[in-house]
Design brief:
This protein starts with 10 loop residues before the first helix and ends with a helix. It has a 4-stranded antiparallel β-sheet with strand order 1-2-3-4. The longest helix is centred in the C-terminal third of the chain and has 13 residues. Helix content is 23%, strand content 27%. It contains 2 helices and 4 strands, in the order αββββα. By secondary structure, the chain is an alpha+beta fold. The model has no long low-confidence stretch (mean pLDDT 84).
């Protein structure tokens, strides 16, 4: 699967703040957490500690494959 990644996009340009959410497995102890936003056919990913920073946008199929692999580990 070929995945095009845009590395110059900021989180606020990807989705409004209300669309981002953190995993239920995350906590507030300052660990390495990411937040995701479900977009049309894509998923936005950002660092939960840098909400105004850059975001990674990947095809929804790539995100689903990644999550499926992590759940199978």
């Amino acid at each position: 699967m070929e995945v095009a990644i845009n590395t110059k996009i900021m989180a606020h340009d990807v989705a409004p703040e209300s669309d981002w959410f953190k995993s239920s497995f995350s906590n507030d102890s300052g660990g390495a957490c990411v937040e995701i936003a479900s977009l049309t056919g894509k998923v936005g990913i950002r660092d939960s500690k840098n909400k105004l920073g850059p975001a990674l946008v990947v095809p929804k199929a790539a995100w689903c494959s990644f999550v499926g692999l992590m759940l199978s580990e």
